[in-house]
Amino acid sequence: MKKFAVLGLAVVLVIAFTVPAMAIESVFGGYWRTRAYTQQNFTGEDQTEAKDVTLVDTRTRLYYTAIFNENFKFVNKFEMDAAWGGTSGGYGDIGADGVSVEVKNSYVDFTLGSVNSKIGVQSYKLARGFLFNDDFAGAVITYKAEAFELPLFWIKAYEGTGIETATNPDYDNDYDVDYYGIAPKFSLGDTGSIQPIFVYAFSNDAGAGANAMSWPSAPYFGTADRLGLDEIEAFYLGFDLDLNFDMISMWLTGIYQFGSAEGVDGLEAYDADISAWLLAIGAKANFDTFDIHGQAFYLTGQDEDEEDLELFVPLKGQDYHWAEIMGGGIFDGAVSGASSNGTTYSGGYNQLTNIMAFNIGAGFKATDDLSLKLDIWYAELAEALDDTLDEELGTEVDLVATYKLMDGLTLDLVGAYLFAGDSVTMDSPDDENPYEVGAQLSLSF
After folding, report:
1. Positive or negative, the Cα torsion across 329, 333, 336, 337?
2. Which pTM does this prediction carry?
3. Domain definitions of the chain by residue range
4. I need a surface site. Which of 156, 167, 328, 398 has the fewest CB within 10 A?
């Protein structure tokens, strides 16, 4: 795969430099960042050091767009990642000649009349990332009018053709996982916007494709001997609302998830209904040199005694960063205590579910180039992991200083400390609070 990525980059560069200058307009851009950070006691104890890490890593993204005319362009994005001193094929080891180029995006973007089409490997965002915020292969077709836009999208989450098993010897398409959706956005003038969201996610046989749906394993249904999933039909119905009133801005997101999931319970088939939801709200008040902001969100968990599925299950591709330690902030290599005993799970930012969290914070612009942000987070599980532990994940304090060194070049300094609860420490006799310190240098062009 890496060889194809390198070949693709070479082909794009050859085209860019050999096609006559008048035929197309070539636009180059990119992003680069280097992070140095340490994360300690993220398991909630100080003996195993299972998640302890101190490292430096670099990410480079290079963008090339061929613009044929105002209504037609070809977009490509390439990515290279390296942990300094890495030995897994990256370019961060001695010699620095590893092959680590990835094709992040490659799609055509063209407009015919009032309809814009993006076809290929691209990115998309739904419900602020609570539902989806990732790259994918598929299509987004958008009708654009003066006061609204109407996007239709197809996300190919998993291609099952060619997978042969004892129960699927015919290479059929039953393992496919697809998302279809519509997310019209209506302008409210200077006040803001509202965007209804509808998504249909399904698989005829999720035995191999469940991971591509971010679907939970059997114990989430509250019965330990349920072996797996078969047919899944999940519907997501919700909205995004954004409002602006002079110094104050507000947002609200709500999603209701329903449908059904079939599988095996011991030696018997079962059919579980889905009924889950999320609600998130945020606000910010801007003053001359500082702001006050806050947010809260709730994603339902699973009651052990409930046969149906009440756990909110996002699409594969969820990505919502929140607290620095509990929610994957700037340094997202790990999150605190994101583990399970097989009953309920609460991930950090890309498997976020079964959680409620509250935030209050303030930002201060010290100079034109220096800004500070202080945040306090409290989070707990919507449903406890078991009867012996309470739901508390903890109270976290985050401090971020951002300094603009020059145009395009920014330095972020981060310090975070979590006063961990039972759902992080798991009541360990060697319990210890997680902390994180780090710096990030980044540029975009």
Report:
1. positive
2. 0.87
3. 113-276
4. 167
